[in-house]
UniProtKB/TrEMBL annotation:
Domain of life per record: Bacteria
Keywords on record: Hydrolase, Lyase
Molecular function terms from GO: carboxy-lyase activity; hydrolase activity
Domain Amidohydrolase-related: 10-280
Lyase keyword on record: yes
InterPro entries, alphabetized: ACMSD (IPR032465), Amidohydro-rel (IPR006680), Metal_Hydrolase (IPR032466)
Protein name, UniProt field: Amidohydrolase
Biological-process GO terms, alphabetical: secondary metabolic process
Matching Gene3D superfamilies: Metal-dependent hydrolases (3.20.20.140)
Gene Ontology CC: one annotated term: cytoplasm
Amino acid sequence: MSAPDLPEIIDIHTHFMPQRVLDKVWAYFDSAGPLIGRPWPITYREDEGGRLAALRALGVRAFTSLNYAHRPAMAQWLNDWSSEFAAKHDDVLHSATFYPEPGAADYTAAAIEAGARIFKAHVQVGDYSLADPLLDDVWPVLERSRTPIVMHAGNGPAPGRFTGPESVRDLLQRHPGLVLVIAHMGMPDYGDFLDICAEHPDVHLDTTMAFTDFTQATSPFPRERMDDLVALGDRVLFGSDFPNIPYPYEHAVDAVRRLGLGEDWERKALHDNAARLFGIR
């Protein structure tokens, strides 16, 4: 598939980070560390300008930066960087993150006030519980603001101490008004997260790495749940994990299109659902 063949896309799961942070992320992928477990070449290992140019050449209309913190005293710095990055680029959805630490509710509220439109919570890498008391004041801020949270809480590519669908169920029981986007379709627990999405109208799923040959080899999507994908067609959003993907970007798009769920479903997943959620016209 060549770039001109791609439809209009909004990608809600891309990563732009301070270079020293990204270098550490790439080094971890290069090492095939325990959270990865197999070789994972970085297809778009370019400088920031090259990565921006690559997405734009592919016709991606809007995308995120999705930094995430894995230790205290990191989130605020990442939020400041993400705010500056979004201010420089009109096609970037202003992204932010948080971590269980004193003051998290204050800097989360400050990020929203500064224009953050999407947050990233990475339970696996951050190695924290969604029920951590230090997050008790964060969730109401996000719930009241209705700011979407891309949440990596699934057990893929390897389980963490606090990952899994039950942690998300418990969070939604306490804060049913949260707007969540479950990263990677919740792989490998696709069925559980499809059920959570069906039960909670403010829960969405992103397609990040799902359905690709790379993922199907180890965590195939269950064919018997395809009808659920159709039923939840208004709440499936395209994500890629660019630039940290071990295949060309076009393959991620093709993996969604080859599901064969119809042009209307594809258009909503690749563009319209995100445009509605983020008010992109």
